[in-house]
What does this fold into?
Amino acid sequence: MINRHQLQAMIDFVEQKGLNETTLGELRQQYEGLHFTWCLDDDINFEHPVAEHQEFNVFLVDSRDHCSTLTKDAETASGVVFAEILED
It folds into this structure.
């Protein structure tokens, strides 16, 4: 489960530090048990992000079953995807 305060703290942290593997590694240390992924926004085929930022969109991941899926349900979320937006 990821509550909205945690999610906002994660987003603020990425805004401050920049979206990169070092930042995600720090998030993994701060939020043990949660998974963090970085990809390109156009790699995601899901309705709407749970949060939008100028440089990235944020999606939640549900890994309860054998295959991870994107979700909007923070109660079942076990991870966060930061999807980087590249300018054309």
